[in-house]
Structures are given as structure tokens and as C-alpha cells.
Request: fold
Amino acid sequence: MKKEEKTIEVKAKLNFEEYLRLNFSLLLRSKMVWLSLFLATMLIVMLLENRIINGEWADSGVKLGLLLSLTVFLFLVLPLLTYLRTKNYFEKNPLLSELTTFYFESERIEIVTSESHAKLTWKRIYKIREFKHYLLIYQNRHIAYVVPKKSFDSLVDMEIIKDMIRTKTKLGHRLKS
Reply:
């Protein structure tokens, strides 16, 4: 006899600060950002080496200009663009800030808002990403449902969901224990 799994209901509502934190978490996991930081570090090392050996800050204005441009982009422009893009997207997409109810069932996940009702079978889940405060369930490459961990009634419910993901998808290796 097959053990009947219970349906777990999770009600979630994101505010702008949470959505912004999530977007910065995603940004900091970007390989391009880390590559840019590596390049900036290498340029700083080259400039310091030149300063120590020759007593000059740069053997060419190109290196100094590149370093300054990269630094301004990484530490001012990129965070500002991320903030503005996140704010704009959050304001123009009311679905992000409205109450969403997730029903995690043995065969599927149902996502219900005031204006929509979606059913997503476990086989159709594209990707799962777990963060410290969130669980992202991707329907496809670009659309993810954000489930704040604080929205679970208990840690036991969250572990049941993780077990469902591990047993019903091939994506369980992406979860933290």
C-alpha cells in the first residue's frame, strides 16, 4: 500500500526589500561579475607592481583608465542598475507583490493568486535553486516562482517539500540538506 503524501500549503507575499535582496543574491552569483572582479584585481596588482618597482602609478593611461572604468562600473553602475531594474520590474508586475498560495501535492504544485491559477507537474520543473531565505522553482529558463522560506509553517513542512523535490525530480542535488 502506497503511503499518501499530505498537501502542504504555503502562503507567500514578497515586499520590495525581499525582492531586491534576492536580485542582489542572484547578481553576486553571476560568473561575469566574478570575472570582472578578477580582472579589476589583476589590474590593481599590475598598478601596484608598477608603483613599487618604478615609483609610478601606471606605465600607461590606458591601464589606469581601464581600472577606473571597471571599478566605477562594478561598484557604482552595476549596483545602481540592478536596483533601478529591480524597482521598475517590481512596480510593473503586481504578481510579485500579491499574496500567492502554493499547494505542494504528490503529483504537482499548484500556484494560486487572485488573478491566476497554475498547475506545474513535478516533471515539468525546469530548475530549483535554494538560497538562504528563498526557494526558487523555475517553470522554464526565465520564469521562477519565489517561495520565501519564512512562509513555511514549520521546518518539517520545508523538509517534506525538499524530499518531494528529491524524489519526484532529478533536481534534488541542488538543495541544501
User: Anything to note?
Assistant: The chain has a mean pLDDT of 85. The longest helix spans residues 61-92. The chain has two domains: 8-14+98-174, 17-94.
